[in-house]
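QA checklist item 7 of 12: single-chain prediction sanity check.
[x] sequence parsed
[x] length recorded as 74
[x] structure emitted
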Amino acid sequence: MLEVKQWYQSKTVWGAVIAMAAPLLRHVGVEMGLAEQADLADALATLAGALGGVLAIYGRIKATRSIGPGAGSN
């Protein structure tokens, strides 16, 4: 079965963003090799997943309605 995850948890997405940004960064003097790009993509995917979890918990704490069986049905 195919694993489903949010876009921001994808190392491929972060790798693509970094691959696009690396040449632009080179113009301002920041050099980034392939190994550094891979490490940064991994770190950003991990950080994004953690932040997503924190936001989910925060949203549940701040919610004004409870969750449970039958929620949403009248």
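[x] summary fact logged: Residues 7-52 form one domain.
[ ] second reviewer sign-off
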